Amino acid sequence: MYHTILIRYGEISLKGRNRSKFEDLLINNIKFALKDLPYQSIKKAYGRIYIDCSSNWEAVVDALQRVFGIVSLSPVFKTELELDAIKKAAQTLMENAQGSTFKINARRPNKHFPLTSMEMNQELGGFVLRNFPHLKVDVHHPQIELHVELRNEAAYLYHTIIPGLGGMPVGSAGKGFLLLSGGIDSPVAGYLTLKRGVNLEAVHFHSYPFTSERSKQKVIDLAQILANYAGRGEIKLWVVYFTEIQKALQRSKYPELNITLMRRLMLKISERLAKRENALALITGDSLGQVASQTMESIHTINAVTNMPIFRPLIGLDKQEIVDLAVKIGTYETSILPYEDCCTVFVPRNPATKPRIDQVLEAESQYDLEALIAEAVEKTECLTVTKSVELF
Ligand code: ATP
Ligand code: MG
């Protein structure tokens, strides 16, 4: 029934060249999101983006609801600049609207149109009242607001405003490396980072045969869901083989520090990969106080291994808030599958909750860390994971 999708975007603070960079990137990301869908054209005008699509507009709206940078969108009826045609369109739209009060909101960028916006409001308001006797006008809090935009090329009518994801177009910030486990938290941390425009790659630590192929597949599946929100519809996943390091840690004289050592090694290896691939930050799913490795003391000691910025977008969220987000973005069902993670397999009976840096350095001095790190980086596998269209 609709002909066009109107897209509103933009952080208000964007100006000048930044604004056009933002718009071009958003249009590019929209084209990627609509790659497999039919649409006729996509263009920018009056600080908005318009997509002409005569068939399958529901699928187009659905895909656009996964594109960061879109604040809201409206399916729009496009018609000739002629009063009778506009009334006919208004009739169809009002037949499909829910509510008992309404208001007409006309705008007239095209000053050649014979009626002013006030006259248009009155003309169309009278028309709706005559044709829909159960409706009443409410100019302050209408349940249905019928927008009419009179432009040079056509008239556009709509009454529905669908919220978008907001945020910034992916690719507008630099590249970041997400430490992606198979759990609930880290995919949500990845989603929130994508939301701010970060071009995301993921790194996963796998300890085959202590962790199974199925646990690796689960992480690939999670990356595939995240790829739905990534600008180009794909995410690079670096799989680090962590088995030798885990075995070495098993021989430690300080087993209570193993989680701390393991986390520091994860960060060190991620940092190596990230720098090589020109990424500017690491991202984890830590939430303050959630487990032994996420006390302030632990974070302090683990963080000291690198001077690369580490983003922890979940730091202030409660578990339930993280779960709610995981459900919303579609990762929850996969995250709760029961396949073991390398941390659960090797977790010591009494992990230190306040590991001190001098103790950790002493424990690390048992190993040739540089050799362990270099070997892990050398054996890392890179997969390109593409979004799955069927996920939702
Ligand atoms: P989740 O795995 O969902 O984060 P969790 O509470 O089990 O939940 P922790 O084991 O405490 O997470 O790990 C904290 C963070 O360390 C994770 O959010 C993730 O960023 C990183 N991490 C943990 N295990 C791995 C792994 N095997 N590969 C990559 N990153 C990991
Ligand atoms: Mg966690």
List keywords for this structure.
VC0802-like; 392 residues; Rossmann fold; binds magnesium ion; alpha/beta; 14 helices; binds adenosine-5'-triphosphate; six-stranded mixed β-sheet; 2 domains; nine-stranded mixed β-sheet; elongated; 39% helix
List the helices and strands and how they pair.
Elements: E1 4-9, H1 16-33, E2 41-45, E3 48-52, H2 57-64, E4 70-79, H3 83-95, E5 101-107, H4 117-131, E6 136-137, E7 144-150, E8 155-158, E9 162-163, E10 175-179, H5 185-195, E11 199-206, H6 213-227, E12 234-241, H7 243-250, H8 258-276, E13 281-283, H9 296-303, E14 310-311, H10 319-329, H11 332-335, H12 342-346, H13 357-364, H14 369-378, E15 381-386
Parallel strand pairs: 5-6, 5-7, 10-11, 10-13, 11-12, 13-14
Antiparallel strand pairs: 1-3, 1-4, 2-3, 4-8, 4-9, 7-8, 12-15
Helix pairs in contact: 3-4, 5-10, 8-9, 8-14
Bound molecules: adenosine-5'-triphosphate and magnesium ion.
Adenosine-5'-triphosphate (ATP) is lined by residues 179-181, 183-186, 204-205, 266, 284-286, 290-291, 293-294, 341-343.
Question: What would your notes on this structure say?
Answer:
- The chain is an alpha/beta fold and 392 residues long.
- The protein has 2 domains: 4-163, VC0802-like (2-Layer Sandwich), CATH 3.30.2130.30; 175-386, Rossmann fold, CATH 3.40.50.620.
- 39% of the residues lie in helices and 20% in strands.
- It is built from 14 helices and 15 strands.
- The protein has helices spanning 16-33, 57-64, 83-95, 117-131, 185-195, 213-227, 243-250, 258-276, 296-303, 319-329, 332-335, 342-346, 357-364, 369-378; strands at residues 4-9, 41-45, 48-52, 70-79, 101-107, 136-137, 144-150, 155-158, 162-163, 175-179, 199-206, 234-241, 281-283, 310-311, 381-386.
- The strands form 2 sheets. Strands 1, 2, 3, 4, 5, 6, 7, 8 and 9 form a 9-stranded mixed beta sheet that branches.
- Helix 4 (117-131) links the parallel strand 5 (101-107) and strand 6.
- Helix 3 (83-95) packs across helix 4 (117-131), helix 8 packs across helix 9 and helix 8 crosses helix 14 (369-378).
- The longest helix is centred in the last third of the chain and has 19 residues, at 258-276.
- Bound molecules: adenosine-5'-triphosphate and magnesium ion.
